[in-house]
Design brief:
Number of domains: 3
Low-confidence stretches: none
Shape: globular
CATH class of the largest domain: Alpha Beta
CATH architecture of the largest domain: 2-Layer Sandwich
Structural class: alpha+beta
Number of strands: 20
Mean pLDDT: 97
Radius of gyration: 21 Å
CATH topology of the largest domain: Gyrase A, domain 2
Strand content: 25-35%
Number of helices: 8
C-alpha cells in the first residue's frame, strides 16, 4: 500500500469540504465550490491555491551559480539576482526531465522549484551530475510550503494584507519580504495567465497566510481542477502532457527557455541538432468544429493518417468552446488546416488554431 503525503494545509481543505484526490503522490484538493466557480474567480477576481506539494531543492556553495547554469537550459550565470528564471532539466538527447523555476537567492545559494511528481527523480539527476562542482545539494521540500494568490485583484488584496506596495514588483521577479513579522520569499508569477503572487515560507507560516486570506479576506480557495483549466487556456505546459522525456523543449513550444549561446549545458548538443535540422513535431492549438470534447490521448488524423495526439483538451470555461493542445507532425501544423479528432470511434472535425487561446494578463 502506497502512503500518500499531505501538505500542511490538508486539515483546512477538509474543513472547507474540498473534494480531495491523489495527485503526484499527495492528497490534494481538486475542487471546493466547483471548478467553474473557482476558474471564474481567478479570471475575474482572485483565488488562492495550495501548491505546497511542489518540490524545493537548494543548491549552495562556491560554484552554485555555475553548476545550475550547466544543469538547466536557460541562463543563470550573470542573471539579475531578483529575477525568477524559467528553465528545464533535459537529458543528453534533449528530452525534458522537468520544467522548473530558478531563484538565485545569492551568488552561492540557489533554490530550484520543481514539479511534485518529479521531486525524487530531479534530485537524483542533480546529485548524479554534480561531478567536481563545489556545491551542496539538499532536498528541502518537507520544510517549505507554498500558496499562489492569483487573479486581477490579487495585487490589491496582497497590498491590503501585507501593507506593502507592489508598484515596483515586476512579473517574474521575486522579493524577500517580512509579512506580519515573518520571512517569506514572494514572486510575482503564477500558472493561470493572470497577475498573481507565489508565496514561499516555512510550513506553519504558509498555513497562517492561507487561513488569513481565505477567512479574513474572503479569497476563494481553488483546487487543482481549476488550476489545470486556467493554465491550459493560457497555453502553459504541464509535465506529462505537453512535456516529457520523449518531447524536447522546441517541440513543446518552450524554446524561449533554451539558450543555445551558453557555453555549455546538459543536452546542448542534441538541442543544437534539433534547431539545425528543424522540428519533426510541433505543439498546436485545436478548435473542434463539431460539438464534442477533446481529451488528452485522443489521436489526431489528417487524410486518414494519424499525425499526433491531444495533450490537453477541455470545453474552455472562459471561451465557451471545445479546444485542445496537440503534438503533431510539423509538416501538418499549418494554421486553419482541417484535421480530425478520434473520439469514441468517431472522427470529429476540427481545425488548427493559434495556441494563444487566452490573452495573458501579467504585470509587466
Amino acid at each position: 500500500m502506497i502512503l500518500l503525503e499531505k501538505t500542511v494545509l490538508y486539515d483546512i481543505h477538509q474543513s472547507l469540504n474540498a473534494k480531495i484526490a491523489e495527485y503526484a503522490g499527495f492528497l490534494m484538493p481538486i475542487e471546493y465550490a466547483g471548478i467553474v466557480i473557482e476558474h471564474n474567480a481567478v479570471r475575474n477576481d482572485a483565488g488562492i491555491f495550495d501548491v505546497s506539494h511542489m518540490g524545493e531543492i537548494k543548491i549552495t556553495g562556491l560554484e552554485a551559480e555555475k553548476f545550475v547554469d550547466y544543469l538547466v537550459t536557460n541562463k543563470v550565470l550573470g542573471a539579475e539576482k531578483n529575477r525568477v528564471i524559467y528553465a528545464m532539466l533535459v537529458q543528453e538527447d534533449g528530452g525534458i526531465i522537468d520544467d522548473l523555476f530558478v531563484y538565485k537567492l545569492a551568488e552561492d545559494e540557489i533554490l530550484l522549484v520543481v514539479n511534485a511528481a518529479n521531486i525524487e527523480k530531479d534530485y537524483k539527476w542533480i546529485i548524479e551530475h554534480k561531478d567536481n562542482y563545489k556545491v551542496n545539494i539538499k532536498n528541502v521540500s518537507d520544510v517549505w510550503g507554498e500558496v499562489a494568490l492569483q487573479g486581477p485583484k490579487s495585487s490589491m488584496i496582497f497590498e491590503e494584507y501585507t501593507k506593502l506596495s507592489t508598484n515596483d514588483f515586476k512579473f517574474m521577479t521575486y522579493k524577500k519580504m517580512l509579512i506580519n513579522g515573518t520571512d517569506f520569499i514572494v514572486s510575482r508569477s503564477g500558472y493561470t495567465g493572470e497577475d498573481g503572487f507565489e508565496i514561499y515560507g516555512k510550513n506553519a507560516d504558509i498555513k497562517r497566510i492561507f487561513e488569513d486570506l481565505v477567512y479574513k479576506y474572503n479569497v476563494v480557495p481553488c483546487g487543482l481542477g481549476s488550476r489545470d483549466t486556467l493554465r491550459f487556456e493560457a497555453s502553459l505546459p504541464l509535465y506529462g502532457h505537453e512535456m516529457s522525456t520523449t518531447i524536447n523543449p522546441f517541440e513543446a513550444g518552450m524554446g524561449f527557455a533554451v539558450k543555445l549561446d551558453k557555453e555549455d549545458f546538459i543536452g546542448k548538443k542534441a538541442l543544437l541538432k534539433v534547431k539545425e535540422e528543424g522540428l519533426k513535431r510541433k505543439l498546436i492549438g485545436i478548435e473542434l468544429i463539431e460539438k464534442n470534447i477533446p481529451r488528452a490521448g485522443y489521436l489526431l488524423y489528417k487524410d486518414d493518417v494519424c499525425i499526433g495526439e491531444v495533450t490537453t483538451g477541455y470545453l474552455s470555461i472562459s471561451l465557451d468552446k471545445p479546444i485542445a493542445l496537440g503534438l503533431i507532425r510539423a509538416d501538418c501544423a499549418n494554421i486553419d488546416s482541417e484535421i480530425y479528432v478520434a473520439i469514441r470511434k468517431k472522427m470529429v472535425k476540427a481545425k488548427i488554431i493559434s495556441r494563444q487561446f487566452y490573452q495573458k494578463n501579467y504585470k509587466r
